[in-house]
Amino acid sequence: MSSIIHDLVKLPRQLYWVQERHLLEFLLLLDGRKSVVRIPVCNTDEWKNLKSMCEVHHLRIIGSAKKTVIDFVNALGEEYVSWVDLDDPRDGGQVAYIAHNELQASKAECAERNGDPFSLGKLLGYPDCCVRAYSRMANDGIWLERLLPSPGSGPLPWEANKLAYALYDASLFPDYFPCSLDCPGTTELARQAAISLGRHGLGEVAQRHARLMQAPVAVFPDRVVGLEPEYALTNSLHDLAALAERPTIRLNPDYWVHTAAAKNKPYILTFT
Ligand SMILES: [Zn+2]
User: Fold this and answer.
1) Residue 56 CB-half CA count within 13 A
2) Residue 211, exposed/middle/buried by CB under 10 A (0-12, 13-18, 19+)?
3) Distance 54 CA to ligand 1 centre (A)
4) Nearest C-alpha neighbor of 94 from the set 71, 69, 73
5) Cα(131) to centroid of ligand 1, in Å?
6) Distance from the CA of 46 to the center of ligand 1, in angstroms?
7) Distance 13 CA to ligand 1 centre (A)
8) What angle do helix axes 184-199 and 20-30 make, rounded to 10 degrees?
């Protein structure tokens, strides 16, 4: 394992908001698959640690001119934020933009400050279709409901399974909202990330996330339940007691009337 990978795998323990999936973003940066990594930073100690790690490995880092504070948290635990001045008394955090050169990092900071999701999405390596879809979507907290396909839609590519992130914190693509559960750009990005993980000696991480992303999911009128891989073959969806302990996402009640599952016909999504 190279020294930069050795330092990167420690980041989730050192930085409060950083998770294992941020590792993927650094690997995609190192392998030339994206230009900038965007990392939330909690306080000045975290900033110093991240900055010195970047300096050691010849990466450029730029901080946001403002900080984010949490406006509200939706039912999935996702935080929606707004930008305020750095001296605002509320608790918040800066955002770090990390790249191979200062120009790219500064372009990303500028794009986010100016509210330009298309330039920012391109620098972060997000598929255009997903950036377009997200810019149309209001922050109404029902992105997941919009992604759910109808019953009988057939197996989906596991690489673009965003449900696995909400159910298990498992993902092989960066933290954006894919435009669909079979988005080709997202599928390709996850394949590249799995290759990058393997190349850098982290194939076990790729396999662990892939296994969870491949597990089937049951869609009920009011919730989505993550199933064991063999569940669809051996059990009935009406065996509710067996599902009670499984990871579950509650759906937004406003959306129930729009789903086929609302007619009390739960269905299973499979990923291949
Ligand atoms: Zn897309």
Assistant:
1) 13
2) middle
3) 30
4) 69
5) 7
6) 32
7) 31
8) 90
pLDDT exceeds 90 at position 29: yes
d(CA 180, ligand 1 centre) in Å:
6
Q: Which of 200, 214, 119 is closest to 167 using CA atoms?
A: 214
Q: What is the pLDDT of residues 73-94, one digit of tens each?
A: 765 566 778 889 988 888 888 9
Residue 70 Cα to ligand 1 midpoint, Å, equals 27
What distance lies between CA 184 and its chain's CA centroid? Answer: 16
Q: How far apart are the first and last CA of the chain?
A: 31
Q: What is the pLDDT of residue 18?
A: 87
The tens digit of pLDDT for each residue in 154-211 reads 899 999 999 999 899 899 998 888 999 999 999 999 999 999 999 999 999 999 999 9
Domain ranges of the chain: 1-125, 126-272
Q: In angstroms, what is the span from residue 197 Cα to ligand 1's centroid?
A: 22
Distance 186 CA to ligand 1 centre (A): 6
Residue 70: its H or E element: strand 67-73
Ligand 1 center from residue 160 Cα (angstroms): 9
Tokens representing 35?
Answer: 């230009």
Residue showing tokens 């323990």: 13
Nearest to 36 by CA among 82, 117, 102: 102
Give residue 125 CA to ligand 1 midpoint distance, Å.
Answer: 12
Q: How far is the CA of 185 from the centre of ligand 1 (A)?
A: 6
